[in-house]
Amino acid sequence: MPLTSSGTTHLSERDPKVSGAEMVAALVPPPQFDGATFETYRADEAYPSQQGAKDLLEVFSSGRGAPAARGGFFRRAKREAPMKPGVYLDGGFGVGKTHLLAAIYHAMPARRKYFGSFIEYTALVGALGYQKTVELFRGADLLCIDEFELDDPGDTMVMTRLIAELVPTGTKLAATSNTPPNALGEGRFAAQDFLREIHAMAEHFQTIRIDGTDYRQRAVDGHAVVLDDVAYESAMTDAAASALVSDDDFGAFIRHLASVHPSRYIRLIEGIGTIGLRNVVGFDDQSAALRFAAFVDRAYDAQIPIRATGTPLDSVFREDMLAGGYRKKYLRAVSRLVALTHS
């Protein structure tokens, strides 16, 4: 679609299309992490696991094996067990996992490497077919998978099969999530075959725990900014003078998200400088809430400010949603919504 440098548009009227080739070309770190390196990762001294993770991932990215322990005069140095082909960054939201994942991508001397969210990889399988996707990635040096999800057992099974086929060919893997790989699926799906697949996948990864507090909450107030109608109109008018902004009724926007595959959400906001949402209300439907959480991830990746009226955006997910199986996903969305309404 043609992009305008300034003015107002409506996300609920956009219907972006993405080809398989465009999806593959987009498998790079988000612009926010273009310059992410191990040097720019600021480990919190209060949480030693952050520095420990950084040190271990630098070794992983260099292609060297684990360092050897020093030996005595009459004994050989004891070598550490070799690193697994994959590393799995486990920790809460806002502790820098995606920064470290992007740092791995930038640091690894690889000829062919890819970086994408879990949903981008599964969407690619849907667009190209499973076998063509395997052929595409076969021989790749590195696959980075951000935000490994378990919303759909079928999608997760596809990813575990893909990983199982790529590891024997020499592909290294790096993934992030808020749940350790040997705990994926707990409390959500009872199918034993599915659980067995998940535990088998865990064998390919060395889990690296990263503790800490959400860095976004350190920098901003703890609640999303809510504007009244007058302040909203003023903010959007000012923003539209120098950039393209979107202005949508929240209900109409949420209904529209149901007609756009989450892999296209990043194209939905292409060229947008500020996102405006009027008359925000809380969610009654879990599917709609999950789609919005996926949209927030893409808006945060693109670092697009949000201006909103109505219910505070950090209060749109019901208490039972925050206590359920998707708790960590919703909390991540809340954290990012707070940051974007302050930006």
Description:
With 343 residues, the protein is α/β, with parallel strands linked by helices. It contains 14 helices and 9 strands. Strand 8, helix 12 (286-301) and strand 9 form a beta-alpha-beta unit. The strands form 2 sheets. The protein has a 5-stranded parallel beta sheet with strand order 3-4-5-2-6. It has a 4-stranded parallel beta sheet with strand order 1-7-8-9.
Instruction: Supply the number of helical segments.
Output: 14
Strand order of the largest sheet: 3-4-5-2-6
User: What order do the helices and strands follow?
Assistant: EHHEHEHHEHEHEHHEHHEHEHH
Spatial separation of the terminal alpha carbons = 27 Å
Quaternary organisation = single chain
Uncertain segments are 67-71, 187-191
Average pLDDT: 85
What is the C-alpha radius of gyration, as a whole number of Å? 21 Å
Helix share, percent: 40-55%
Strand content: 5-15%
Structural class: alpha/beta
What general form does the structure show? globular
How does the major sheet shape up? 5 strands, parallel
> How many strand elements?
9
